Amino acid sequence: MLRIPDASLRQMLTLPYVILVIVTAAVIGMLSYAAGRNAVDTLSNHVLSETVSRISQAVDKHVAGSEAVLETAFPADVPAPVSVADDMEELRTRFWLATSIHRDPNNYAYYGDRHGQFFGIYRFSETEAELRLRTDDKSPRSIYQYARINGELGKPVLEQRVFEPRDRPWYKVGQETSNQTWTAIYIDFKTLQLVSTRARRVNGADGEFEGVVATDLSLQLLNEFLKGLSLTENGFAFIVEPDGNMIATSRGPHIRKGVGDDNTRLNVMQSTDPLIAATYRSVRDLTSNSANVNGPLTSSFKGPDGEIVQTGYYRLQDAAGLDWIIAVAVPRSDFMFQVTRNVKRTVMLAVLASLLIALIGFIVLSLITRDLRRLARVTRSVGDGIMDLSTPSCRKDEIGELARAIDTMQKRLLTDRLTGIPNREAVVRRIEDRIIEHRRRGDSHPFAVLFVDLNG
Known about the structure:
20% strand, nine-stranded antiparallel beta sheet, 9 helices, five-stranded antiparallel beta sheet
């Protein structure tokens, strides 16, 4: 039997209930936390998959129209012009229509040939555009502003830098294949932002290589899209190439700013955020074999600080050579925040309930122990031979019954059962009390005790 050494009645009656409340609250808290964690894991995986799908759809929106842009700017059966200046009107019409298909984001279509000539149209809006033209292999490009498809060209403005199309990545990649292909991501000549270009070889009338037609995909728009995502406080998303070179990110930079126009791409392993690098390593291993066939997948890993991080990822590939990894990562604690807060609330309520129980128990037991102490004092007096202490009680419960039983016991101990008059013990106690009282008062008057033998 469990016994608490030297425990008071108040402690023995209060402590078990306090412990019971705390244990019950702890069990409920643990069960709630486990159930909440399972539910949150399921829900968070769904949220991560949905977020990755949204990013994938945004990328699709950016890349899907590029094929049609190239086909409109230079249909497959149309040979390259010998002189860009001679075919200016036809090129203006086709390239205007090409940049009207998906003006956001494919608002720029251009062509460069093996002689160094260049023709391109950059659309600012539905009605305003810029024509970029180079008709030889030495001069900088001339920039013309104009409005509408057949609008009159404005006064030309020469660029400060000499743009050589044959040195650009899109030209070098495009001349190698007759199929459409994506270039490696590079930093744009004018905007100094990351750009990926879709290009295709264009042959002359003799079937030989003549030039390359291309359209740009500005990755700045993808960066803006990622930064506009509604993620958790510590969550983030990024798009990278398999080698770790950053394409877009919702947190931190994706380009290392240099002096002047000397910007360089940032590799994710160079990130100052260790969680981003750890997420890339985890996702890279998961996507090392092939693209996700059945859509976004989810996983989790232990972060640099030991915390579990949940991820959603998707490896996007297409026939033109696009190969990107999309990843979203959120520490589990962000998803578990509400569950953890509820558990803390449960613990706090348990503590408050324990304090309330202890307070109520203290008040109730104080009332009970007051009467019990009085009864204990009376019973000790009886044990010492003092029989005249009364135990009055108005209680109708067990304590009241005990008080009345003690009072009855006292009367029986001091009364002769046969005659109902005080017995010898009662007489002796009365005499002793009178002697004590006489001594205490200093009474000078003596008193006497008379014994009468009634039976002669």
